[in-house]
Specification:
Helix content is about 25%, strand content about 25%. With about 290 residues, the chain is α/β, with parallel strands linked by helices. The chain has one domain (about 1-280): Metallo-beta-lactamase, Chain A (4-Layer Sandwich). The strands form two sheets. The chain has an eight-stranded mixed sheet. The longest helix is centred in the middle third of the chain and has 13 residues, at about 95-105.
């Protein structure tokens, strides 16, 4: 797995981001090695957890949901004896994305941990910090322009945050979160964390290429995200909503569901469909409900 800077950023961005080029060579994990890219939108209740296995068997976990349910879900998609994960990414340190990762670090050996580095003073973040220190993993902060390459035509492009957030404080951590565009051959998947309209509008107005074949709906389908302009720019073939059954927030909202219907975008939601698997080769796809 290689970390590098995209070649199409400006000289100014190079200057800002200089020193953030990181190369990490990671070991192969056991896996199907079937030549396909597998992406599971895991049913972890009211939270996010996405598990990716590349054609060569490398494994990436993006967020861990709100509790230990993540361990059960990983046990359903990983081989029973597999206790290694190549890369863990925390999009932002809110409990519904971070809490389950504590259990992951206690159970699995992780090679690289990536996050924004934003300031967080909660007891959960303090425990996370201690576990990271004991994990012996490489620690990196992600920012616009970085690329995580898998060496088998799988790449994660970092589209947000726009600047280094290490040590910065956010009133709403959602809008400091990581946005990734996963690219495999001719296909792409946009992974949005919990970003809200503010960040969606920034991505659109900045001309960031968010056009993608598949979209993880931001913030569990909250009305604070998934603007009409953003959905139009992404123009996905299908969308995925990670959300808990009968949650107190009313997610996904009728507004977001209607917007997807207006654009004739089929969607899958973990509160109804359970864990949903997206399987890609370089040109075609299948979507499976567990």
């Amino acid at each position: 797995m290689k970390f590098k800077m995209s070649e199409n950023i400006s000289k100014k961005e190079w200057a800002i981001l200089g020193g953030l080029v990181i190369v990490a060579f990671l070991s192969f994990s056991f896996g199907g090695n079937d030549g396909l890219l597998h992406i599971w939108f895991l049913d972890v209740g009211q939270g996010d957890a996405i598990f990716v296995e590349t054609p060569s068997g490398k494994q990436v976990l993006i967020d861990g949901g709100p509790d230990e349910t993540i361990l059960q879900r990983l046990g359903e998609v990983m081989l029973f004896y597999d206790r290694t994960i190549d890369l863990v990414i925390n999009t932002h340190p809110d409990a519904d994305h971070l809490a389950g990762l504590l259990s992951v670090l206690e159970r699995y050996r992780v090679s690289v941990i990536a996050e924004t580095g934003m300031a967080c003073e909660t007891s959960l973040c303090a425990e996370w910090k201690n576990l990271k220190a004991n994990e012996n993993a490489d620690l990196i902060n992600l920012v616009l322009g970085q690329e995580i390459g898998e060496g088998d035509d799988v790449r994660f492009l970092v589209l947000h945050p726009f600047e280094d957030e290490a040590g910065k404080t956010f009133t709403k951590r959602n809008n400091g979160g990581i946005v990734l565009k996963l690219i495999f051959g001719a296909q792409s998947v946009l992974l949005t964390g919990d970003i809200e309209k503010q960040v969606e509008n920034k991505l659109v107005s900045a001309g960031v290429n968010i056009d993608s074949d598949f979209l993880k709906i931001a913030h569990h389908g909250s009305k604070t995200s998934s603007t009409e302009e953003f959905i139009k720019k992404v123009s996905p073939l299908a969308a995925f909503i990670e959300v808990g059954r009968n949650n107190k927030y009313g997610h996904p909202t009728e507004e977001v569901i209607n917007r997807l219907a207006d654009f004739k975008i089929p969607y899958y939601r973990t509160d109804i469909d359970g864990t949903v698997e997206l399987v890609l080769d370089e040109r075609s796809y299948k979507i499976k409900r567990r």
